[in-house]
Write a structure and sequence with these properties.
Distance between the termini: 41 Å
Radius of gyration: 16 Å
Oligomer: single chain
Helix content: 10-25%
Number of helices: 3
Strand order of the largest sheet: 2-3-4-1-5
Strand content: 15-25%
Order of helices and strands: HEEEEHEH
Structural class: alpha/beta
Length: 172
């Protein structure tokens, strides 16, 4: 994907909404009901957005939602694209790059993840504070798009410790 493709998708989306979302949310399996708490102003199916692909996962609705939650302006991916669906990492990360051009300052990603701790049960909430990339490829591969940031972002703390602490407080 090129920077022009990203700009094209962002320009298309801006025609539907005058808002500048502060936060991007990528909903995975399990937290799809979050949209029931949102005030949704615009719902745009992925298939209508230039250069977006469609999720093939049954539980992923496949729409980009604009609206608000508790006074915060959001853009929400209702379902996502996965490498295991046969999409390239460019295609998988494309929506995040589009959200950056739309103005988001914070990205919250939910997913169904596993754990080695046997005391965790399916459906338990977990907070991820680090990860290892075991994929055979890397989304940073290829020509860097300078407009989106540095070639190699600092991965010493991939998840903001202050935000993680706030999420722990909210969960309690």
């Amino acid at each position: 994907m090129t920077y022009q493709d990203i700009q094209e998708a962002a320009t298309y989306l801006r025609q539907f909404t005058g808002s500048k979302p502060e936060t991007g949310v990528i909903l995975g399996t399990g937290l799809g009901n979050l949209v029931d708490m949102m005030h949704i102003t615009h719902e745009i199916p992925y298939r209508k957005i230039p250069h977006f692909v469609s999720s093939t996962v049954e539980t992923h609705a496949g729409s980009l939602l604009f609206g608000s939650l508790h006074g915060k302006s959001l853009v929400v991916m209702q379902g996502r694209f996965h490498f295991y669906e046969g999409y390239s990492l460019d295609q998988v990360t494309f929506p995040v790059r589009v959200m950056k051009l739309l103005g988001i300052q914070l990205l919250i990603v939910s997913n169904a993840c596993g754990a080695l701790n046997l005391s965790y049960k399916p459906g338990d909430l977990m907070l991820i504070d680090d990860h290892l990339n075991f994929l055979p490829s890397n989304p940073l591969t290829g020509k860097n798009i300078d407009e989106l940031g540095p070639r190699f972002p600092d991965m010493s703390r991939p998840y903001d410790p202050l935000i993680n602490e706030k999420l722990k407080q909210i969960a309690q």
